[in-house]
Specification:
The structure holds two protein chains of two kinds. Chain A is mainly alpha-helical. Chain A contains six helices and no strands. The N and C termini of chain A lie far apart (61 Å). Chain B is mainly α. Classes of the chains: A mainly alpha, B mainly alpha.
């Protein structure tokens, strides 16, 4: 097995355009979810035991700013994963059109994420009144 | 010019561990889309259109646990706390844990190339998921 011959900084500067952007955002979203689910489960468990720290962490997780940032990772991972799965189910027919699929994915993502952000803000305002 | 096929059929590729995990990732993703769909439909059947915003339905669908309904305008939580939803949440959580632990290992493998490092990555991730799964199931059923 050979060692990695590209530094992390060089890898992050790689200009792979649309497909690479979806690839790296998919990973960032997945990593965000892995960290979130682990800490959220532990926080809820500790909250059930009456520990203050769990309450504090879950208060951060329920806050609108956190949800807006986190929702980006989750929804992108979800919608991009759906594109990957659909393309993998019909590779010979669909993979030649993967750039068009990425464009459709971005349109769907912007619509769903935009709606999620708007309802997060309006719900938070509604709960305050 | 004839386009060269980019894919190799499974019969020629063979079912190695990597192929199995590739398939596992896709199948668990499909299963999770199914769980999300059940969550959205179930929320509307229970009257979410009157008591929950889009993002609250989304949060419920991403993990149908009663804790995700507490902050909404739902007047009666008991339909959301049924055995059915706890079972769906448990299955969703187990599927997500399997999908997630494999995903994290795949990501970390790209940044840690030495066999000893990869061995430790597998060890710590499997240990972590083995600890988190029972805690998560406990939270779903008794939270």
């Amino acid at each position: 097995m050979s060692d990695r011959n590209v530094s992390l900084s060089a890898a992050l500067k790689y200009k792979g355009q649309g497909p690479y952007l979806t690839y790296i955002l998919h990973r960032i979203g997945g990593a965000m979810m892995a960290i979130f689910v682990t800490t959220h489960v532990l926080a809820t468990f500790t909250e059930m035991q009456g520990w203050q720290i769990g309450d504090l962490i879950n208060d951060i997780y329920i806050s609108p700013p956190f949800q807006i940032v986190f929702m980006f990772g989750v929804l992108f991972h979800l919608i991009n994963g759906m594109r990957i799965t659909i393309l993998d189910l019909f590779p010979q027919q669909l993979i030649p059109y993967h750039r068009q699929a990425i464009l459709i994915e971005w349109i769907i993502f912007i619509l769903v994420y935009g709606f999620a952000v708007v309802t997060t803000i309006t719900t938070a305002i509604g709960r305050m009144s | 010019m004839q386009t060269k096929a980019r894919t190799l059929p499974l019969s020629k590729r063979g079912m190695s561990f990597e192929t199995f995990m590739w398939l596992f990732t896709r199948l668990t993703a499909l299963a999770m889309y199914g769980f999300i769909f059940i969550g959205i439909v179930g929320a509307f059947v229970m009257g979410a259109q009157n008591d929950m915003s889009f993002v609250e339905v989304l949060r419920w669908a991403l993990m149908p646990n009663t804790g995700h309904v507490t902050y909404t305008n739902v007047p009666e939580i008991s339909p959301y706390a049924s055995m059915f939803w706890k079972s769906v949440a448990s299955l969703f959580f187990l599927t997500a844990a399997g999908h997630g632990v494999h995903g994290v290992v795949v990501i970390l493998d790209d940044y840690f190339a030495k066999p000893s490092q990869r061995k430790w990555i597998r060890f710590w991730n499997i240990l972590l998921v083995a600890i988190i799964i029972p805690i998560g199931i406990y939270v779903i059923w008794f939270g």
